């Protein structure tokens, strides 16, 4: 006989998303259990957001300093890689989760360590590291918050070459002399930026025409130019045919027959949901697949089951997953309390509307890239009648004061029928701090004639907002 404990809510996964679901359901008075098979705090805390930004910040700060009069001569030398890695280790709590466990405990949720699996409706089994199995039942909801994992494509020889994924790239204890990075998305370009800055000779191989293909095309062009200027070898329109490791050397053969030797290879070609071993088959769902949800994050056809964060494939970003967690917890609580009609209309309290209209993202490269809402191509494909307004950020006084030789660009995509902003993209040093103003404009659907009265401070880079609006008004 296995021990059975009943809760109002059972959460699978104790990353930022699962923690937020648990915190908010507990705050609403629901009894909640959280199940985690690895470190409490999840991918973001130990292998993604926190360690990657700890690696990138010194690289970007040095690049800015080298373009700052009076400071450039003082930062000509290499970074102290050992100090950067030590700081990275501090930011990940040395891959110990005591602090995160204490936080979960403080919410009043019960934490179970082990592999959690669905075992039919509202029922979860947890097998702990000692092989002991417990059963948890949920009166109201089970929330799947297990995140995603890196995909290693089935290239000949790749698996045997012990490739890096995002986890190894953010937790490595030294800078490899030569690093091949495969993939031009966010992980690929951020890690190429980090390790090139920390002393590696980076070769970035991209199958498509440019970097960061989900952003406006000019973003990838500026980021590629900067990587090349830093010494990286950036190749687009290039595919890998096979990989071989002989001792410490990795040989990468390209589809044109060329061979590149390296010390490590990082594969950053996509992610898959961590749903292959959580018992989906016991409730009629496909193991290993993405989970389709409605705007309250409830899995279609399963009124008790929620999928929150990466697993639903709506927006694979920590901040967006935490937003979904807030929506899901509100919906779970409302249904548990018998609220007859949830606010699931557009921008309602129980609808993750921002997933469709106002997803922000910052890419921490040099230069930084930041975007929210729809790109021009996405807006046109969606059938909107739009106009793109572009401006050279270097022409703004605040940019010329920020660094010498500032290179950057801004684009505002305007819905001509409603005269609101559908999307904004910035690329340039320091633009990550601009994106929340754009997020507010997009999410709030601020009319342009009202936005005209939002006066940017002088002399800041934010003055680009005025220039975009002036260009639109003619």
**Spans of at least 5 consecutive residues with low confidence:** none
Number of helices: 15
Text of the CATH class of the largest domain = Alpha Beta
Question: Which fold name fills CATH's third level, the topology of the largest domain?
Answer: FAD/NAD(P)-binding domain
The CA-CA distance between the termini, in Å, is 75 Å
Family: Belongs to the class-I pyridine nucleotide-disulfide oxidoreductase family.
Cofactor: FAD
Protein name: Pyridine nucleotide-disulfide oxidoreductase
Keywords: FAD, Flavoprotein, NAD, Nucleotide-binding
Describe it.
This protein is α/β, with parallel strands linked by helices and 474 residues long. The protein is built from 15 helices and 21 strands. It has 3 domains: 3-41 and 97-149 and 272-354, FAD/NAD(P)-binding domain (3-Layer(bba) Sandwich); 159-269, 3-Layer(bba) Sandwich (FAD/NAD(P)-binding domain), CATH 3.50.50; 367-473, Enolase-like, domain 1 (2-Layer Sandwich), CATH 3.30.390. The protein has helices at 16-27, 42-47, 49-65, 81-91, 98-107, 166-171, 186-197, 217-229, 318-336, 354-357, 376-381, 397-402, 435-443, 448-451, 464-473, and strands at 3-12, 32-36, 110-113, 115-118, 123-127, 133-144, 148-150, 178-182, 201-205, 233-235, 240-246, 249-254, 259-262, 264-267, 271-273, 305-307, 360-363, 369-373, 386-392, 409-415, 420-427. The strands form 5 sheets. Strands 1, 2, 3, 4, 5, 6 and 16 form a 7-stranded mixed sheet that branches. It has a 5-stranded antiparallel sheet with strand order 17-18-21-20-19, sandwiched between helices. A hairpin with a 5-residue loop joins strand 5 and strand 6. The longest helix is centred in the C-terminal third of the chain and has 19 residues, at 318-336. The mean pLDDT is 97. FAD binds at residues 53, 116, 146-148, 310. Its cofactor is FAD.
């Amino acid at each position: 006989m296995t021990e059975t404990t009943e809760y109002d809510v059972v959460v699978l996964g104790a990353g930022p998303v699962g923690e937020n679901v648990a915190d908010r359901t507990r705050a609403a008075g629901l009894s909640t259990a959280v199940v985690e098979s690895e470190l409490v705090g999840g991918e973001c805390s130990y292998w993604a957001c926190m360690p990657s930004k700890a690696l990138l910040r010194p690289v970007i700060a040095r690049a800015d300093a080298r373009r700052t009069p009076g400071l450039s001569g003082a930062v000509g030398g290499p970074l102290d890689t050992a100090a950067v890695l030590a700081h990275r280790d501090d930011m990940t709590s040395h891959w110990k989760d005591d602090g995160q466990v204490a936080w979960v405990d403080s919410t009043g949720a019960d934490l179970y360590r082990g592999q959690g699996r669905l075992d039919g409706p509202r029922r979860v089994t947890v097998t702990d590291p000692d092989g002991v199995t417990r059963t948890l039942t949920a009166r109201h909801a089970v929330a799947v918050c297990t995140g995603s994992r890196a995909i290693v494509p089935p290239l000949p020889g790749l698996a045997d070459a012990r490739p890096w994924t995002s986890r190894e790239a953010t937790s490595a204890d030294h800078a490899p002399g030569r690093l091949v990075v495969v993939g031009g998305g966010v992980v690929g370009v951020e890690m190429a930026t980090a390790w090139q800055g920390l002393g590696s000779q980076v070769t970035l191989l991209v199958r498509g025409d440019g970097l960061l293909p989900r952003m406006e095309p000019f973003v990838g062009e500026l980021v590629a130019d900067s990587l090349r200027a830093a010494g990286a070898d950036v190749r687009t329109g290039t595919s890998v045919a096979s990989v071989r490791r002989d001792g410490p050397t990795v040989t990468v053969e390209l589809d044109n027959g060329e061979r590149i030797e390296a010390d490590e290879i990082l594969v950053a070609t996509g992610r898959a949901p961590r749903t292959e071993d959580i018992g989906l088959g016991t409730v009629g769902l496909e193991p290993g697949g993405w989970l389709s949800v409605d705007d309250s994050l409830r899995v279609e056809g399963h009124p008790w089951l929620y999928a929150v964060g990466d697993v639903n494939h709506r927006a694979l970003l920590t901040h967006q997953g935490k937003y979904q967690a807030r929506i899901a917890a509100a919906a779970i609580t409302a249904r548990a309390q018998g609220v007859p009609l949830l606010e699931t209309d557009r921008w309602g309290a129980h609808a993750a509307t921002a997933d469709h209209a106002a997803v922000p993202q910052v890419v921490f490269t040099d230069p930084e890239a930041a975007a929210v809402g729809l790109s021009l191509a996405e807006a046109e494909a969606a059938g909107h009648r739009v106009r793109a307004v572009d401006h050279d950020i270097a022409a703004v006084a605040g940019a010329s004061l920020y660094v010498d030789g500032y290179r950057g660009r801004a684009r505002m995509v305007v819905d001509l029928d409603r005269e609101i902003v559908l999307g904004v993209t910035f690329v340039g040093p320091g633009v990550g701090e601009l994106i929340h103003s754009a997020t507010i404009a997009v999410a709030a659907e601020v009319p342009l004639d009202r936005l005209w009265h939002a006066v940017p401070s002088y002399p800041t880079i934010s003055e680009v907002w005025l220039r975009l609006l002036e260009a639109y008004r003619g």
